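Example (one chain per record):
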Amino acid sequence: MVQQPAKDSSPVRFAKEWILNTLQFCTLAQTRRLIGTLWLFSESDFSTFVVPNTAFGILGALSGSQLTTQTEVHVEKILRRLPLVMLFNLSNVLIFELANQRQPESVKEDLVNKPWRPLPTGRISSEGTRRLILVMVFIVLAMNFSFGVWRETALLFTLTWLYNDLKGGDEIIRDLIIAIAFGLYNHGSLTLAMNGDADINKKGYTWIAVISGVILTTMQVQDLKDQPGDRMRGRRTIPLVLGDTFSRWMIAVCVAIWSFYCVCFWDFQQPMVYAVLMTVGGLVSFRALRRRNPKEDTRTWKIWCAWTATLYALPFISATLGAREDSFKL
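Predicted structure:
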């Protein structure tokens, strides 16, 4: 039985009324400054986290029976859900970043790695950020309750607590926490994109697990560029604990293995699909081994993000090519 998302509830009405009442006492300049501050907290994760995870949900829903129990794909209806799927991802990323960036050690780290963020620039204080979290947690939970993805949101809040307040993000298990979080983001994105019209099937759950495996074994690529700040903070990342060279070889090998495995997972018969994915993955592997400085590591990380986005598109590509082949047979 497919569970329909709740359309409205008292927590949702409370959040809406609170926002409207608050905005009545805010000038336009104050409102713009608040929105700008919230954006600066989450801006660095928008193109590399929010957009790919949103794409996972939308493209997964558009792939029809590849990941879900859909028997018919309603393209227009799914595309109308895109802003809500993006809002689900952005709102949860915002909660994580507020909790993460307010930590004293995070402020010191950002002074080295990301000095343009709100706290290093003095745009907002740590105490102000703490109070903002107290408000935003209820708003985000109420909003995603109305979307029907409150379970994923509640679990993401728990992971945020483990990562930041319990300092899991400073331990070598940080990539495990991030990998589980990706699974929740992708599950919520796909669920919201379908809007209760279908369930995620067995292959869909397997694919979500595969993507989490990709994140677990290759996400350390983002740590390569942040080593100076991580070292100052005392964070136990794989490049710092096991060594920069070991980490780079692990990334290169795992990206190559996952590129081949994911194409095989979807049983592509077209050489072009192999060529594209192996080329992008090969570029990540090559750069991880041969381009070893913070500036180049940042570029490698962005290419890695493009590689994962390509993985996210594989179910949709598989469905599209399969439908085209069927039409040729007819």
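Caption: Confidence is low (pLDDT under 50) at residues 1-9, 323-330.
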